């Protein structure tokens, strides 16, 4: 099973139910957004592995479902940049990504 499949299985087990279509679409959207737009280490520019940020995906997905406060998501993204990836961190960019995530959540009526 792929890393992505394992993560989906974890989410299934965490919630104790199968994700609704809209939730799965949102999950996949966040996955693409992290790789394509957040991408603090520039992995997508090098056509690197698309699963690079999937380890953070379940937490971001859960945070977004529980709250529409962009600061909560931005804080987590910034923490990952600084503590996990060893970067200086870019709060403004993290806020932009968090805002996109919440706007997409609202479009999907989640």
Q: How would you portray this structure in words?
A:
The protein is an all-alpha fold and 110 residues long. It has one domain. It is built from 5 helices and no strands. The longest helix has 18 residues. The protein is globular, with a radius of gyration of 13 Å. The model has no long low-confidence stretch (mean pLDDT 88).
What is the fold's blueprint, element by element?
Layout: H1 3-15, H2 21-38, H3 57-66, H4 70-84, H5 91-107
Helix pairs in contact: 2-3, 2-5, 4-5
Largest sheet: none
Low-confidence parts, pLDDT < 50 over ≥5 residues? none
Query: What structural category characterises the helix and strand content?
Result: mainly alpha
Please bin the fraction of helical residues: 55-70%
User: What percentage of amino acids are in beta strands?
Assistant: under 5%
Rg (C-alpha, Å): 13 Å
Morphology call: globular
State the helix count. 5
Roughly what is the average pLDDT, rounded to an integer? 88
Number of strands: 0
Query: What series of H and E elements makes up the topology?
Result: HHHHH
The oligomeric status of these chains comes to single chain
Distance between the termini: 28 Å
């Amino acid at each position: 099973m792929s890393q992505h499949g394992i993560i989906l299985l974890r989410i299934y087990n965490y919630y104790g139910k199968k994700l609704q279509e809209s939730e799965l679409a949102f999950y996949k959207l966040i996955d693409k957004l992290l790789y394509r737009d957040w991408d603090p280490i520039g992995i997508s520019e090098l056509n690197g592995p698309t699963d690079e940020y999937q380890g953070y995906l379940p937490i971001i997905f859960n945070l977004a479902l529980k709250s529409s406060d962009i600061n909560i998501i931005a804080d987590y993204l910034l923490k990952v940049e600084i503590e996990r990836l060893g970067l200086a961190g870019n709060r403004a960019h993290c806020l932009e990504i968090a805002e996109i995530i919440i706007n997409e959540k609202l479009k999907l009526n989640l």
